[in-house]
Specification:
The chain has 480 residues and is mostly helical. It is built from 21 helices and no strands. The chain folds into three domains: 10-113, Orthogonal Bundle (434 Repressor (Amino-terminal Domain)), CATH 1.10.260; 164-350, Alpha Horseshoe (Serine Threonine Protein Phosphatase 5, Tetratricopeptide repeat); 352-480, Serine Threonine Protein Phosphatase 5, Tetratricopeptide repeat (Alpha Horseshoe). It is 66% helix and 0% strand.
Length: 480
Amino acid sequence: MTDSTATPNDQLRSARKATLSPSGSRRPMSRQELADACNAELERRYEAQGRRPRWAGMTEKTIGTLERGEIRWPNEDYRRALCAVLKSDEPSLGLYIDRSASAPKADQQTLGEEPDSSQRQGVGPLAGRPDEYDRGFPFGQDELEWSIDQSADQALIFASAAAAGLDAQSTDDLFSRASDIAQEYASQDRWRTFNRARNLRDVAFEQATRTKRPDNLADLYLLSALNGLLMASAAFDLGRPSGALRLAQGARTLAGLSGHTEAEAWSFGLVATLFNWQNRPKQALVEIERARRLTSSKKELFRILHIKARSCALLGDRGGTEAALDEAQRCLAGADFGSLLHDQIAGEFGFDSARASACAGAAWLHLEDGAAARPHLEAAIAGYEALPQVLRPWAPLTGAQVDLATACVMSRDLEAAEAAFEPVFGLENGRRISTITGRVDSTVRQLRTGYTTDRHARQLGSRIESWSMEFDQRSIGAQW
C-alpha cells in the first residue's frame, strides 16, 4: 500500500538522471535501465561469490517506489547494487534508516520491501506456502534481528510510560536489555551493536522527556549513558575515533547527571582510553585523575590504573608505568564486590584479568620493551582461550595475538613472532576493525625498521602485508 505522506527521494532520482543511458542515446538513464543495470551487477556479484539470488530482481516499479520515497531502506543487496551502478554511497542516494519521531512516517520504514506483486502472497506475513514466503522475504537476517530487537525495546518503553513514571520492574527490564547488549559486545558485529545501543538510548531519551519523577530521570540518564558508552566503543572499532570521543564525552555528562559515580568514573576511563589511542596521553591523564577522585571502587581503580599505565608509557615514562601497574595489583587484592558495571552488567563493562594483562602488555610495547610485554600478552591470550568458544571475545584475543607478535619481533624472536601471528591469518571476513589494523601496522613497521637486512623478517613482513591487503578485499566482499 502506498503511503500518501511519503517524501520523494530526489537524491536517488537526480543520481539516475545524471547517469547516461547505456543505449548511447545521450539521454538520462531510465528507471527500467537502472533496474536492469542493478540486476546485472547483482548477477555478477552472486556468480563471483557462488551465491544463489535471494530476491526476484529489480523492476521499473522497484525504482519508482524508491524514488517516490515509499521505501527508504531496501534490502542490502539492492542498496549495494544501486551504489555500484550510480557510483555513489547510501546517504548520497537518500537511502537511510531513520527511526526518529520527527521523521515522516514513510521515512521511518527501515526494512526493505519488495514492491512486485509477485512477492505478496495472500494476507499476513506468513500467508502462502513456506517456500513462497522464504523466496519473498524482504530483508536479511541482521535486519530482521535488529527489527525484532527494536520492537522489543520500544515495547518495554511503552509499557513503562505511565504518568507516574517507571515502576521498578520496568527499570529492571530496561537495564537487563542494556546488559544483554554489553555482554554480547565481544562476539557481535560492531555495527549491529552500535545500532542496538542507539535504539535503546533513543527510546530512553524519549521517555526522559515525558517523566517528571527525579528517580526515574536518574535511571533513564544512567541507561542512556551506558548505551552511549557502548556506542562509543563500537564507533571506535568501526574506525570513527572522533565520533567515538564525542559519544563518550556525552555519555560521561549523562552519567554525572544520573548521580551514579561508578558509571561516571567508567566514562572518564573510556574518554582517557580514546585519548590514548589518539596519542594524546596528557589529556588522558587529566581524565584519569578525575576518575580517581570520583570513585572508591577498587575494581574501577584497577581498570583506571591500567589505562594510566598506557598513558605513562606513551609519554616514555617507564617509572610511571611500573608504578601504575603495581598500584593496580594492590587494588585487585582488595577489590570490592557487587559492582553494577563490573559484576551485574559485565560484558564490555567488565575488566577481568585477561583484559588487564592485554593492557599491561600494550603499555610495555609503547615503551618498546618486548621482553616485558610478552608474559602479559601470553597471559591475556591464555585467559581468552580458556573461555568457552561462544564467549570468547574475538577482537581482544586477536589484538593480543598481534601484540604478542610485535613483542616477539622486538625481542628478536622471529619464529615466535610468526607463530603468534599465525592464528590472525585465519581471521574471519568482516572483522577488520581499527583496534586490529593499527596493531598489524605496528608489527610490520617493527619488521621493516628493526630488521633491514634479515631475509626471514622481510618474508614475514611481506606475508603479513599481503594478507592485510587480501583481508581488506575479503572484508569488502563480505559486506555484499
